[in-house]
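Z., the sequence and structure:
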Amino acid sequence: MSDPTNGIVLPAGWPVRARLEELARASRVLFLAGLPGVGKSLLVQQVARMAHHAGRKISLLQWDVARAAFETPNILARYPEINGFTHAALKMAIGLWARDAVAEWHAANPGDEALLIAESALIGSRLIELTRPADDRAEALLASEATRFVIPVPTREVRALIEATRETTIRNPRHPREDHDAPPNVLRSLWRDVWREAGRPDTGANPAYDPAAYTEVFARWLGARHIETLSIDRVIDAGGSVYELGVPAADLVASPAEIATIMRRIDALFQS
């Protein structure tokens, strides 16, 4: 049974719920990493609700929200989106800013009450900077046991149903953010990238989703971090949009001054 009284729709007794409840209580930073279409946004929503009911103060760092602040007309004129894919320069800019943002958040939120929930696909270098060791203020936190990088791994059947649901929500979005979800053709394209990264044979056709190949690639990318996988073997009805958080949370978003500073570094690299 789920617990609709506090917004938790993950079934009681499911190991995934039990582990997420532990992480919601004990983590300092909880990072949901994985392809679009594996259920990350639902898990972010559920962890936020679990953490809120455990008395924690929640902040969010999510790729789509962070990206939007950088997509000004001036920046997009220099680094345009092509066929639905963010320019490499912008992805680097957002990743560099994110490391600074994590460090600032950590300094501004001492004590055990605060929890930062982060989310990104990583594929295509989305927030990949957070996974790589660097000599900066964020590294000690990102490398600590208090920071967990969690990879949701759906079964083949669950992944197929998520893709089918995506077809529906793209046509009939229930929340403004669903307008920006990766459409099915992008889901398939990103999966082909992971398939090739895993060294599997390229037949020229769309390869079938393979949980083992998916886990292998993401575990390699996250090899410098404390990681764990969650086997998503059930389809969960969120009862509405997964983007309806339902509890107080503060988004980490770059300020205009921070964006200007980062973009000067990026321009020096990409326009020199």
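The first strand starts at residue 29 and ends at 33. The beta strands are 29-33, 57-62, 114-120, 147-154, 227-232, 250-251.

Let me know what you think.
H.
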